[in-house]
Amino acid sequence: MSGSKSSAPDAPGAEPLGLTVHGLPTPALPADAQQRRGRLKMLLILGVCALPVLASYFMVYIVGATGVTTNYSALIQPSAALPPVDARLPDGRSLALPSLKGQWLLVVVGSGACDAACEQRLYLQRQLREMTGRERDRIDKLWLVIDDAPIAAPLQAALAAAPATLVLRLPRATVAAWLKPAAGQALEDHLYVVDPMGEWMMRAPPQPEPAKLKRDLDRLLRASASWDQAGR
Asked: Transmembrane region positions (predicted)?
């Protein structure tokens, strides 16, 4: 049969039949799809970085699987980042507020003409830091002065005593856009806690009980020990 002879591999003059497999070209992603993929990767990286922080806050405020909250202070959700502004030091120099990242911050807000309630909050701020014992080097004290009223010389001396309280002046509007009091309270009524990533994440109640507030702070320091170290 002529058909079978023409297809035989050993027929005279016949060339061997070869198959070449070519890979299909990989289609290029549209520009918008590449951007979406890039954003997704960035979000995943940020999520992984934030896990230790979120886990530490969860451990502080939730007991086991019971869902019972144990915090005395108010947990701020979502947290609020240090505003990207410059504050004014007592000697007139400027300091970028985000440069305070790297330490836990106990923040008091008030007028330069600090009244008795203001002095009490500053005293509580100092005592809380000292009460944390060997963990105190992870905490800085910050007083945000929201007007141009002069600070009395005796108070300046007390704040300068080691470990010194950092005093910064900022407009009230700038601070009020970042820190929020509880309903029915003034901005000056609270002590605020900012974490080492520069996020305001906790607000103490007005006229807090020191022992209960210290317990919140101790839990934060203990739960964050794996990712936070003393010093900037």
From this structure: 43-63
CB 100 within 8 A of CB 198: yes
Burial of 136 (C-beta count, 10 Å sphere; 0-12/13-18/19+): middle
How far apart CA 139 and CA 105 sit, in angstroms, is 6
Mean pLDDT of 152-166: 96
The residue to which tokens 């007991």 are assigned: 63
Q: Could you tell me the pTM of the whole model? A: 0.74
Q: What's phi and psi for 139, nearest 5 deg?
A: -120, 135
pLDDT at 44 (0 to 100): 56
The overall average pLDDT reported for the chain is 82
Give the mean pLDDT of 221-226. Answer: 90
Phi then psi for residue 167, to 5 deg, are: -110, 125
Say whether 118 sits in a helix, a strand or coil. Answer: helix
Q: Encoding tokens for residue 23?
A: 């890979």
> Token pair of 41, please?
């990767």
Summarised one tens digit per residue, pLDDT across range 117-144 is 999 999 999 999 999 999 999 999 999 9
Q: Exposed, middle or buried: residue 141 (CB in 10 Å: 0-12, 13-18, 19+)? A: buried
Look at residue 127 and give its three-state secondary structure.
Answer: helix
What residue ranges define each of the domains in the chain, with the CATH number in brackets? 73-210 (3.40.30.10)
Find, among 212, 190, 209, 231, the residue nearest to 76 by Cα: 190
Could you tell me where the beta strands, DSSP code E, fall in the chain?
62-63, 68-69, 74-81, 86-88, 94-96, 104-110, 139-145, 166-169, 191-194, 199-203
